[in-house]
Amino acid sequence: MATLTVPRPAATASVPVGPMLSMFDPVYLGVDEFGQPVYVVLAYRNMLIAGEPGGGKSGLIQNITAHAFLAAGTRPVLLDPKLVELGMWADLAEEFVGPDIDHALVTLRRVQQVMNNRYAWLLANGRRKITAADGVTVIPVILDELAYYSATIGTKEQQAEFIALVRDIVARGRACAIPVIAATQRPSVDIIPTSLRDIFGFRVAFRCTTPNSSDIILGHGWAHSGFNAADILPTNQGVAYLIAEGGVPALFKAAYLRDDQINGLVDHATWIRTNHTRPPAPASANALAA
Ligand SMILES: Nc1ncnc2c1ncn2[C@@H]1O[C@H](COP(=O)(O)OP(=O)(O)OP(=O)(O)O)[C@@H](O)[C@H]1O
Predict the structure, then answer these.
(1) Is 58 annotated as a binding-site member?
(2) pLDDT, tens digit, 9 for 90 and up, residues 77-127
(3) Binding residues for ATP, per the UniProt record (predicted)?
(4) Given ligand 1 and candidates 143, 241, 256, which is best to mutate, with the most ligand atoms within 8 Å of its CB?
(5) Is the separation of the CB atoms in 72 and 139 below 8 Å?
């Protein structure tokens, strides 16, 4: 049974930064109701994040993305139809997919192939899962707005293939260091059927409009037992329920990175990953915005 890791570090404990971080380390998400830090280990678990627009999903995704890029031995794959939520990391990503279903499908097929290769390697070595000691890169697949690819753009066949690929990577990726972190602002059964929801080891419910949507994320019956994301005030952005497989939902407030802080982290990650500083924005981009 997975449980939330909420360590209480000594006052003198230092924060691991830069190349010492690993995707096998606990990822900092924010603080719980008692002001204690909330960490989760994502190398072997997938995370589903859902809630109404403006609740704070992208803020949480940003924390996880920053950890992924500051960690050594990761090749994050990003899918962001809005472009701007994860776009600042695009140059460092293994692949960055915008609002393009063909690109999304090609990318996920590639990830699936890597996953199949890793399973073949595990089988050949009589092993069942990849560990940090194997030195294999972790490929976090970070997806901001699942519903865009599964219900908004593309043909029915493309949407179905997209969902089948996500489902397969969520189901099999965790043993071979390919965790999926997926967000959606549409917590409804057509977007998150129970069979898909239940294979996400961690689920996060930001404010929802109804107790039913809250249950679609956390699991049936939690709203009735008092764990109801519809009770989170709209003004309390960043607050969410987190449930780990087999556990009980717990309220927490996600840490929030401002744009200038994200840019500072991108600069730092660029330096540690490429040994170069980040080039300034092209003049053409500035002209477009004028
Ligand atoms: N953890 C947080 N602490 C404080 N403020 C937050 C936090 N998370 C989000 N906010 C505020 O709420 C706004 C919306 O957050 P965010 O973009 O993350 O929501 P979202 O759920 O991703 O919305 P959408 O579905 O439209 O993308 C932010 O611009 C910020 O002002």
Answers:
(1) yes
(2) 999 999 999 999 999 999 999 999 999 999 999 999 999 999 999 999 999
(3) 51-58
(4) 256
(5) no
* Among protein residues, the one whose CA lies closest to atom 29 of ligand 1: 54
56 is in an annotated binding site: yes
30 is in an annotated binding site: no
Instruction: Round to whole Å and give the CA distance between 267 and 193.
Output: 39
List pLDDT tens digits, range 174-199. Answer: 999 999 999 999 888 889 888 889 99
Place 287 in a pLDDT band, splitting at 50, 70 and 90.
low
CA 273 – ligand 1 centroid, Å: 28
For 200-209, the pLDDT digits (tens) are: 999 999 999 9
- Give all domains of the chain, ordered by start, each with its CATH number: 24-276 (3.40.50.300)
Categorise residue 74: left if φ over 0, alpha if ψ from -120 to 50, beta otherwise.
beta
Largest alpha-carbon pair distance within the chain? 59
Residues with CB under 6 A from ligand 1: 51, 53-59, 185, 206, 237-238, 253-254, 256
